[in-house]
Structures are given as C-alpha cells and as structure tokens.
Amino acid sequence: MNNINAKKRSLKLGGYSVIVTAVVIAIVIVVNLAVRLLPTRYTKYSTSTVGLYDISETSRGILSKVKDKISIYVVSDPSYTDEVTREYVAKYAGLNSNISWSTVDPAVKPGFLNEYTSESLSSQQTHLVLVNKNNGRSRVIPYTDIYYQKYTQQELLYYQMYYGSVPDNPTYFNIEQQLTSAVDYLTAEKLPTVYYITGHGETALDSTVTGLIGAENIDLAELPLLTKGSVPDDADAVIINAATKDFTEDEIKALEAYTAKGGNVLMT
C-alpha cells in the first residue's frame, strides 16, 4: 500500500514538474516574443565605451515629430550583412512607431536597389534605403556613406604626389547623420533651394561642397542668370563661385532686386 501511495505521489510530483516546466517554457517563449515586439530602445544598449549605438538629442527631436510612415530597408547579402549597421537601424527605428525596418536580400529581390538609384552598389556591402510611404520620397544611403573616410582615394593620391607620403585615413561610423538627414528630407514640407550662377567662368563647386549641401537636404540648381534674366522666386540663396568675367548691368540689377527682397548671395 505504501508503495502504491508512493508511486501516486511520485506521479503527482512528476506531473506537477512537467506542468511547471511547460509553463516556464511558455513564459520564456512569450517573453521572447514580447522582447521582439518591444521598441529596441528598451532592449539594446550601447555596446561600446564610445557610444557606438548612441543617438543624439537632435536626432531624437526630429524623430519625435515624424508622423509619416517611413520604411528603412537594410539591403545586403545575408553573408555580408554589417551587424553594427543592422542593430543601429533597429534601435533608431524603435524611437518612433511610424518608422519600420526590414532586411532585403538582393539575390531574392535583384531589382530592388535599381528602383531607387542608378548607382551600381555592391551586394557584398550593406546599404540602406529609406522610403516615405505617404509622399513617395526615397533616399539611398550607400555603405561608403555609412562608413565615411576622412580622405577620398583621389585626395590620398594628390597627397602622395605632393608630400611623398599618405596620411592616416580614419573611418567614421556616420550612420546617425545619414539616417537623420534622410528622415528630415523625406518628411520636409519644403526643401530649401540654392542656385549657383554660371556663365562667367565660375569655378565648379567642389564635390565636398556639393556633398555637404546635399547632406543638409538643400536642392542645388544651376542658374544661367544672363539667359534667365532674374533669380527664381524659390531661391533661398545664390552662390557666385570665383567668377572670372564681369556681370552685365542687367544681371547686376537682377541680383540687386533679389537681395532687396531679402535674398542671400554668397560670393567666393
């Protein structure tokens, strides 16, 4: 009898143990699912003493105002995905419920990048595509803009030619500036426009300058003032870059009329 009772107690304890184990497993599964659904800001912290995953207050302020539906696509071959970029995007998107992110394998969707850029980008690098589902605007952030080097290859070549040596060329993780600039561009009601005047032997704007202007979401357009006759009404500023020929009286009057209305002229 005692043996029978002992067996019953053993079965009951065994059954209880199985139930507890099942409940624990269920809790773990639910917790894991919940963690996946939580905004990343609650589940991922900076893994570097220099704040690799930190997001500035400036970016947070811009993100807090986003009401449009923004999709961020991390595009790369899974074998070459940059995990630092992917994790940063996850945390960044987690700051606003209107921003979502997902991964795209170019082998599965070979024409995906071509929908947004004509630039040939390596599938062995991680690129980002941001799309505003409300207004249709998009921006591509190539790997070379995410990981920015101080000097271009051309600049290094010139340095080598003139100084006989090559300087240190550190690489910067530039993802926050790129993402926030892209979000600002995608959601801006009106983008500022800057015109650069041509027709007087002006020096072409350096690629570094045009890159900085573009990064600030400023539209840059050519203005042949002699043929146009006036500065467009949407001009937020006009650049005259090292002109080598005189302006005509009509052109000077056009610029004077523009500045009289509060227009800005930058002469270099």
List the main descriptive attributes of the protein structure presented here:
3 domains, four-stranded parallel beta sheet, Glutaredoxin, globular, single chain, alpha/beta, disordered N terminus, 268 residues, Rossmann fold, 9 helices, four-stranded mixed beta sheet
What would your notes on this structure say?
By secondary structure, the chain is an alpha/beta fold. It folds into 3 domains: 1-37; 57-185, Glutaredoxin (3-Layer(aba) Sandwich); 190-267, 3-Layer(aba) Sandwich (Rossmann fold), CATH 3.40.50. Helix content is 40%, strand content 18%. The protein contains 9 helices and 10 strands. The strands form 3 sheets. The protein has a 4-stranded mixed β-sheet with strand order 2-1-3-4. The chain crosses the membrane at residues 15-35.
Query: For the residues shown, what is the average pLDDT?
Result: 82
Helix-residue proportion: 40-55%
Low-confidence stretches: 1-49
Oligomer: single chain
| β-sheet strand percentage | 15-25%
Topology:
Blueprint: H1 2-37, H2 57-64, E1 70-75, H3 83-93, E2 99-104, E3 127-132, E4 138-141, H4 143-146, E5 147-149, H5 153-163, E6 171-173, H6 175-187, E7 193-197, H7 207-215, E8 219-223, H8 225-228, E9 235-240, H9 249-260, E10 265-267
